[in-house]
Amino acid sequence: MMKSRRTSIAPLRPPPQSCAHFLRHVGAISLAATLWLAAAGRASAQTIDPEALLAHVRYLASDELAGREAGEPGADRAATYIARLMRAFDLLPLGNEGYLQSFNITTTISISPQSQLLLETPDSARRLELYSEWLPFSFSSPGRVRGEAYRAGYGLSPDSLGDRQGEYLNGKVVFMRGGASDDSNPHAAGSDATPRFKVTSARQQGAPAALIGVARIQTPQSGEPPRPVGIPAGQVIESEEILEWLDADELRITLDAALEPVVARVHNVVGYVPGGDPELRDQVIVIGAHYDHLGLGGPGSLAPDTNEPHNGADDNASGTAVMLELARYFAENEARRPARSLVFVAFTAEEMGLLGSGHFVQRPPVRLERVTAMINFDMVGRLRNQSLQLFGTGTAEEFPALLDSLGATSPLSITQIGDGYGPSDQTSFYARGIPVLHLFTGVHAEYHRPDDDWEFINEAGMAEVARFSIALIDVLGNLPAELTFVEQAPPRVSGGGYGPYLGTIPDFGEVAGGGVRLTGVRPDSPAERAGLQGGDIVIEFGGTRVLNLYDYTYALRAHSPGDTVAITVKRNGRELELSAVLERRQ
User: Fold this and answer.
1) How far, in Å, CA of 312 to CA of 309, rounded?
2) Does 25 have pLDDT greater than 50?
3) What rounded mean pLDDT belongs to the chain?
């Protein structure tokens, strides 16, 4: 059970000039936004109006917002819309810039025209054309390397050189063919044919730079945080002429990757409604939904060859709409406010790895020990057969009985799913010891595709979800005691698992200096028994340097169940050496 120490919510303040500047200059909300105003005029403070919900979705999922990709103008317009509504509802601001909790993320890289790839033999030289014949990978680190060419076939497995690591590759630029050989075993260790894996393996064996042959150049895309691999790395068109050059005797290669990260200012939008009980109002229920989506496609899209708005009406304009109308309802119905305070937050950059909710819990505007529960709305716009799924029902002892009671009086058919971890923003809170619930109406064929438009939305179903949520918030907000947090064991996978199991929950955010920060560890897991903790930064795994999440994944995959691995972490500024015995996935 959480500590009962009382602390105050962050002091109230009007939006400072920086927030006002953002609201003025990000661009006026279009006529589409007035749909909500018309619907709101018909809705009384005592009701949830389906048309008001749909109006939110229609604006947020309009082509004008171009898919609301974090760091892009469409997402800024969405943040403006949400902030203005929070102000109109008389929510109190709780961001670092009024309603905006603003912070920076890296969305991609920018490649300078000064980048070059030069092939030299004793008799001649060939400078390849940037973009048409070669390009640094999006995951390349910046730097200039000149050295002898080392041809590595289709790639270097993590231990292919054995004790000769460094001796063979010291100062050499490794060239690898793209893809995999016809006789390769896709299940063998080190069989991953992706460019990042190949470059990582080359780096681990001492290569200072690497090139990979490709059929066509892939340019860096916004929405794909680079997570640099640690050495300069480039992609080279496998034309007959270029391959002849790369196969030449006494070849020396100069690879100059002149690039820098593209940093964007992004915004969670946060407001709150004070609780009605002087004794309990310092406790908080967080009610959240992410408002970002995939922009024009690219990373994460299930229609990867398209270049058109992925409007994300269900994912997650629907959750944002429900969150907003719940904020309006509780702000306007002072008599119905629960004893505890309600913090309403629209998260950004969920699609890039829960970056918005991760920032929220790392820089919380309220003390996390005062947060008694978090309710997350993600994809609640396609209710079918009255079926609502609730994830996280095993994260508090009181949840199952409480939800059974609420379900008995609701027209919804509720399915309870215990695990608090999942690919949405509740995970950031559950890893901090907070009971969570994620409301979800199911997947569909339009998921992460351009077709997820407002015409498919079931606004009456969204209203049912919102009405159920009012009852849920009312109960949680007025409980005489705090919820009893439960650490959930990992769910069993039907039919058995594949590969080694450690039980860590990584944070997808960047770590200055490299490494992977852990959000938490699974109870009764090898990680917990080894002494790993949430907040640890893994910098080495099994003798392999860990710069990013990919390094960590590859290093884990290189081992087998039953292996004992050494893990080096940074904890509170100190390095610790831990040891874990990996298990088989169940």
Assistant:
1) 9
2) no
3) 88
Section 556-567 average pLDDT: 94
Task: Find the length of the chain.
Answer: 586
Cis ω before 316 (30° cut-off from 0): yes
Q: 38-72 pLDDT, tens per residue? A: 444 444 456 899 999 999 999 999 999 999 999 99
Other C-beta atoms lying within 10 Å of the C-beta of residue 181: 11
Which amino acid type is present at position 551? D
Write the DSSP string, 480-506: SS---B-PPPPPPPTT---SEE--EEE
Question: Which helix (H) or strand (E) is 408 found in, with range?
Answer: helix 399-408
Residues 217, 150 share a domain = yes
pLDDT, tens only, 423-461: 999 999 999 999 999 999 999 999 999 999 999 999 999
Instruction: Please state, as a whole number, how many other Cβ atoms lie within 10 Å of the Cβ of residue 160.
Output: 16
Bridge partners, 149 (sequence order): 173
Gap between the Cα atoms of 346 and 568, Å rounded: 36
- Which residue(s) pair with 564 in the sheet? 581
DSSP string, 151-211: E-TT---TTTTGGGTTTTTTTPEEEE-SS--TT--TTSTT---SHHHHHHHHHHTT-SEEE
What's the total number of domains in the chain? 3
Q: Name the nearest CA neighbour of 48 among 565, 395, 417, 464.
A: 464
Single out the residue in 445, 478, 511 at which a domain terminates: 478
Q: Is residue 490, in this structure, part of any structural domain at all?
A: no
CA pair distance 550, 40, nearest whole angstrom: 47
Residue 181 belongs to a domain with what CATH number?
3.50.30.30
One domain for residues 244 and 208: yes
Structural domain that includes position 545? 500-584
CA-closest candidate to residue 16, choices 93, 114, 111: 93
Distance CA 195, CA 211 (A): 9
Q: Cβ neighbours of residue 529 under 8 Å, at least 6 residues apart?
A: 580, 581
Amino acid at 291: Y
Least confident of 29-43, 242-256, 479-493, 504-518: 29-43
Q: Encode pLDDT of 511-547 as tens digits.
A: 888 999 998 888 889 999 999 999 999 999 999 999 9
Chain Cα centroid distance, residue 187: 28
Whether 5 is in a domain gets the answer no
The CATH number that applies at residue 563 is 2.30.42.10
Q: Do 62 and 77 touch, CB atoms closer than 8 A?
A: no
**Which pair of tokens denotes residue 256?**
């100059």
Both tokens assigned to 515: 């490494």
